[in-house]
Design the sequence.
């Protein structure tokens, strides 16, 4: 079998037995590893700083909470009671009524300090308001305007009561004659009537006999 000849186009074939210079590649690998270590070190320092900030913030919030003594809470409650003693509740207020019109309606009772018309989450009036006076004596004068007419509607005027934190207003249960009096948490159970045929027994029905004239 004759040897075949292979022609090579281009440059000379490099000698595969020669040593390849890998020093440049080793330098790049070492530089990349060093940069990665520095990034990890910086990330660890940032995490430690964030943990220290969170700890400091929690400490400050704890100190601020401890600074609020019961005396300040009682003072704020007393101030609220004093403001409520100079205020009245106005119900059945027209939805188109403005605070200026409510103030003008109660202007003859005394100096009006503030008028608050409560609204829902959509900004629509709820139909009642609070009127705060400067003088305590103006509350008695404002109570005389109960069932007076404002915007064509009879308003209800009553003294404002103070809401005590942690206290819930007691509302008695209504009498319901269909459930045997006052409602309970248990569902209504019909009364039990024993069966006249005995426990677990049912009346026995016999088939009617056929008519046989003969």
Sequence:
């Amino acid at each position: 079998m004759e040897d075949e000849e292979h022609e090579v186009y281009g440059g000379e074939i490099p000698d595969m037995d020669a040593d390849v210079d890998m020093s440049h590649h080793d330098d790049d690998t070492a530089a990349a590893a060093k940069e990665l270590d520095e990034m990890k070190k910086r990330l660890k320092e940032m995490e430690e700083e964030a943990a220290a900030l969170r700890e400091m913030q929690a400490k400050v919030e704890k100190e601020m909470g401890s600074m609020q003594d019961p005396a300040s809470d009682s003072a704020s409650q007393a101030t609220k009671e004093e403001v409520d003693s100079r205020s009245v509740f106005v119900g059945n207020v027209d939805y188109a009524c403005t605070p200026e019109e409510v103030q003008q309606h109660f202007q003859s009772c005394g100096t009006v300090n503030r008028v608050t018309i409560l609204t829902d989450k959509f900004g629509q009036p709820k139909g009642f308001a609070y009127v705060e006076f400067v003088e305590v004596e103006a509350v008695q004068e404002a109570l005389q305007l109960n069932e007076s007419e404002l915007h064509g509607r009879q308003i209800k005027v009553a003294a404002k009561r103070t809401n005590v934190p942690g206290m819930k207003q007691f509302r008695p249960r209504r009498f319901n004659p269909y459930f045997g009096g006052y409602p309970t948490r248990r569902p209504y159970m019909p009364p039990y009537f024993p069966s006249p045929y005995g426990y677990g027994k049912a009346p026995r029905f016999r088939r009617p006999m056929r008519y046989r004239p003969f």
Observations:
- Helices lie at 23-67, 70-84, 99-105, 138-143.
- The two ends are 127 Å apart (CA to CA).
